[in-house]
Amino acid sequence: MNAVSPNGLRVLDLFAGPGGWSEGLRTLGFRDTGIEIDPAACTTRAAAGHQTIRADVAAYPTEPLRGKAVGLVGSAPCQPFSIAGHRGGTDDMDLCHQGLDDLARGHDTRSALRAACTDPRSLLVVEPLRYALAIRPEWIALEQVPAVAPLFAHTASILHSVGYSVWTGVLNAADYGVPQTRRRAFLLASRHRPAAPPEPTHSKNPGPDTLFGPALRPWVTMAEALGWGYLQRPAPTVTGGGTRTGGAEPFGNASRKAMRAAMENPGHWAWKRPAPTVSGTVGHVGGKQTGGHLNLEPNEGAVLQSFRRGYPFQGNKGQRSLQIGNAVPPLLAAAALRPLVTAALEVAA
Fold it and tell me: Which of 20, 27, 290, 308 is the S-S candidate for 328 at Cβ 3.0 to 4.6 Å?
C-alpha cells in the first residue's frame, strides 16, 4: 500500500466503491488505497486514478496493514439496512452488536454470526472496527444509512475505550453544498483532537449576515447543479438500489419528456420544493405525491452526488447507476474529513 498524501501519510478506504471518499480525500491533498470487490467499481477507480486492491474486505488480512495507515474510511454496503431494501439488517442487529462485542474482546466470531444472519451482508458493518483495532489509525471516518446509527454508537463506545474521541450523528448532505437532501449516519473518531461534526456551509434558510459573520450559503438546488438555472431546493437522496442484486437502475431510461417539461416550466413542482427520494427500484425522482416524475440519467445522478463532471464511471448503465447511488458524495466526504485530516497533519508536523 503506497498511496500517500504530500506528507507521506497513508489512508485505507474500505468498501471503496467508485471513489466518493477518494475524491473527497483528493481535494484535501490525500490519496487512499481502496479495498473493493466489485469489478466495475474497481475499473472506475482505475480510470479515475485511485489505487485499489481488488479483494473482499471481510476476507482481507489486517495484520500486514498494522502501522501503515494514518486514516481509515469506509462505507459498508447499505442494502441490508436501507429502506429501499428488504431490511434484513433489522433482523440481524443483535448479531451485529454481538460481532462488535466479540471483536472488542479479541474473538473473531464473524463466520458463525454471518451464517446466522438473515442477510449475510449485514455483518459487513463490523469490518471497520476489525481494521481499526488492528491498524490503530490516527483518525477514522465511517458513513452509512441512518438505520445503522445504533451500531455506530456501539462502535464509538469501543473506540473510546481504546483512546479515541468519537462523535456519531446524522448529517444532511445539502448542508455541505451537495445538491441533494441525503441524510447519512457518520462516525468520526480521532486520537489527537475532540471529534465533532463538521460545521455546515449551506442552509435551507441561511438568513442575513450578522455581526458575528456572514450567513451560510443557500442550499445548492437540483436545477442549479444540473444547469437548469436558479431553483429553490436541492434534489433528494440518490440511491443505488436495495435488493440483493442492487435493485433496478435508479436512473431510469424512460421518456425524458417530463424532465424537459420541468426544465421549461418554472411552475413545475421541482422549481418550488424539494424533490423526494431518488429510489433505486423505480428509477425516477417524484411520483404521485409530487404530481409528476423526473427521469434521471447516470451522469445527472453523478452531478447530484457532487462527483466532478466527466467522472469516468465504468460499466453498463445499471453498473454505473449502482456505483453512483451507493457512493458517499465527495463534497460531504471532504467536509467530514477536513477537521480530522487537519489534526493529523498538525501532529505530523
Answer: 20
List Cα–Cα distances, 188 to 79, 112, 114, 340, in angstroms.
Answer: 22, 29, 26, 8
Which of these, 99, 75, 79, 101, lies nearest to 89 by C-alpha position? 79
pLDDT in tens, 170-194: 999 999 999 888 899 999 999 989 9
Q: Does the pLDDT value for residue 281 go beyond 50?
A: no
The C-alpha R_g of the chain, in whole angstroms, comes to 20
Nearest-angstrom CA–CA distance, 41 and 246: 13
CA dihedral 110, 115, 120, 122 (to 10 degrees): -50
- Dihedrals phi, psi of 234, to nearest 5 degrees: -80, 170
Residue 212 lies in a domain: no
Total count of domains within the chain: 2
Same domain, 22 and 121: yes
Strand (E) or helix (H) holding 332: helix 330-348
Question: Which neighbouring-strand residues pair with 236?
Answer: 181
pLDDT tens readout for residues 200-219: 999 988 877 766 678 899 88
Dihedral angle computed from the Cα positions of residues 196, 201, 205 and 206, in that order, rounded to the nearest 10 degrees? 120
Tell me which H or E stretch contains 51: strand 51-54
pTM over 0.85: yes
Q: Where are the beta strands (DSSP E) in 207-329?
A: 217-218, 235-236, 284-287, 292-295
Helix (H) / strand (E) containing 252: none
Show the cell assigned to 195.
471529534
CA distance 219 to 2: 37
